[in-house]
C-alpha cells in the first residue's frame, strides 16, 4: 500500500521542526559558551578568546593577549565550561531515559537517591578519611563507589518477582532519606571545617573542574551515551506498557536493567566530580518533551542539550550575580528546578507519556 504523499510531507515537516530545534540548541550552546568564557575577573573580548584558543594549535598565526589570558582560559574557564556542558548533558540524558523506563515523570538521578549516595560517600571520605582509593581523587572515588552502590541496590529490586517501576522509585526515595540521615549524623559529630567541606560538596560546584577530571569522564561518556541513544526506540516501545512491549518481542526486564545501569554509571561519574547537582535530570527532559512530544529518538538527545544549556547558563549567573562571590551551581539549579517540580506534582502531567 502506497503512503499518502500529503501525510508523508506532513511527517517530514514534523521531523524537520524537531531537528531544527536540536540544531538551535547546539547553536545556543555555542553562543553561550563563547560569551561565558569571556566573563571573569580578567575581562577578555571574543576575538581575544578565539585568538588564545587558536594560538594553542597555530602559534605562528595567532597571538595572545598574554600569559595571564592563557592561564585564565586554558586552566580555569575552559575546563569549567566543558565540565558544565558535560555534567548538564549527562544528568539530563540520564533523567530522560529513567523517566520512560520507570514510567514515572518524577524519576531522575536526584529523586532515585543516587546523588544522596554520592554525598554520603564524599562525607565519609572528608570527615573520617575512610574509603577506597587515595591521592587527589580520594573523595571522588568514594563518591563514585557509593553512588554506584545506591544504583545497584535499586537495580537489584528489579530482579525480584513483582517489583514494579513504581516500587523502584519508592526504593530510591527511601535510600535518599537513609543516606541523607547518615550524612547528617556524620556532620553532627564532625569538625567545623569538615562540615563546611561536606556542605560545599552537597550543593554542587564546578569550581574544581580540571582537564584531569574531564579525561576521567570522557571514556564513560563515550560508552554510555551512544548506548542510551541507540536504545531510544526501545524506550518508545516500553512507554506503551510492559505487556504491549513483550507482545512486540521486547525483553523488557533485560532492557530496563541495562538502560538503568548505563544511566546510573553516567550519573555517578558526573556527580562524583561536580557534587550533588539537582533538578537538571528532572527539568531538562520535561522541557524537551513539552516542545518535541513523546518520541524519545528526539527527546533524549534534545534533553541532553537542554541540560547542558541550563547548567552552563546557571553557572554563568552564579559567577556574575554577586561578584566576586561565586554561588554554588546546585543552589542556582534548585532555584530553577523547584518551581517546575512543584508544577509537575500539582498538574500531574501524564499526557507527556502518551
From TrEMBL:
GO terms for cellular component: plasma membrane. Keywords: Cell membrane, Membrane, Transmembrane, Transmembrane helix, Transport. Signal peptide: none annotated. One of its GO terms (biological process) is siderophore-iron import into cell. Gene3D superfamilies: ABC transporter involved in vitamin B12 uptake, BtuC (1.10.3470.10). It is found in: Cell membrane. It is a multi-pass membrane protein. One of its GO terms (molecular function) is transmembrane transporter activity. The chain crosses the membrane at residues 20-38, 81-98, 110-129, 135-156, 168-190, 210-230, 257-283, 298-318, 325-346. Its main location: membrane. It comes from the Bacteria. Belongs to the binding-protein-dependent transport system permease family. FecCD subfamily. This is Iron ABC transporter permease.
Amino acid at each position: 500500500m502506497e503512503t499518502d504523499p500529503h501525510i508523508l510531507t506532513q511527517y517530514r515537516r514534523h521531523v524537520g521542526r524537531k531537528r531544527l530545534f536540536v540544531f538551535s540548541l547546539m547553536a545556543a550552546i555555542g553562543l553561550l559558551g563563547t560569551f561565558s568564557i569571556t566573563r571573569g575577573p580578567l575581562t577578555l573580548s571574543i576575538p581575544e578568546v578565539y585568538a588564545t584558543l587558536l594560538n594553542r594549535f597555530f602559534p605562528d598565526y595567532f597571538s595572545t593577549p598574554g600569559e595571564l589570558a592563557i592561564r585564565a582560559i586554558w586552566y580555569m574557564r575552559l575546563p569549567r565550561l566543558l565540565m558544565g556542558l558535560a555534567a548538564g548533558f549527562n544528568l539530563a540524558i540520564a533523567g530522560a531515559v529513567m523517566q520512560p523506563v520507570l514510567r514515572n515523570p518524577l524519576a531522575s538521578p536526584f529523586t532515585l537517591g543516587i546523588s544522596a549516595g554520592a554525598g554520603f560517600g564524599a562525607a565519609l571520605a572528608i570527615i573520617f578519611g575512610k574509603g577506597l582509593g587515595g591521592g587527589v581523587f580520594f573523595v571522588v572515588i568514594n563518591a563514585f563507589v557509593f553512588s554506584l552502590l545506591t544504583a545497584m541496590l535499586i537495580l537489584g529490586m528489579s530482579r525480584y518477582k513483582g517489583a514494579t517501576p513504581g516500587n523502584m522509585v519508592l526504593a530510591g526515595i527511601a535510600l535518599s532519606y537513609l543516606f541523607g540521615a547518615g550524612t547528617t549524623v556524620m556532620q553532627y559529630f564532625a569538625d567545623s571545617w569538615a562540615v563546611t567541606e561536606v556542605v560545599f560538596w552537597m550543593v554542587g560546584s564546578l569550581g574544581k573542574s580540571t582537564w584531569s577530571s574531564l579525561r576521567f569522564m570522557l571514556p564513560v561518556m563515550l560508552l554510555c551515551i551512544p548506548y542510551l541513544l541507540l536504545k531510544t526506540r526501545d524506550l518508545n516501545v516500553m512507554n506503551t506498557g510492559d505487556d504491549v512491549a513483550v507482545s512486540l518481542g521486547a525483553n523488557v526486564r533485560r532492557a530496563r536493567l541495562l538502560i538503568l545501569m548505563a544511566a546510573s554509571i553516567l550519573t555517578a561519574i558526573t556527580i562524583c566530580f561536580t557534587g550533588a547537582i539537582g533538578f537538571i535530570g528532572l527539568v531538562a527532559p520535561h522541557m524537551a518533551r513539552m516542545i518535541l512530544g513523546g518520541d524519545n529518538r528526539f527527546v533524549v538527545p534534545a534533553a541532553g542539550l537542554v541540560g547542558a544549556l541550563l547548567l552552563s547558563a546557571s553557572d554563568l549567573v552564579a559567577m556574575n550575580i554577586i561578584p566576586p562571590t561565586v554561588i554554588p551551581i546546585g543552589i542556582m539549579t534548585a532555584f530553577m528546578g523547584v518551581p517546575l517540580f512543584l508544577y509537575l506534582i500539582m498538574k500531574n502531567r501524564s499526557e507527556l507519556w502518551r
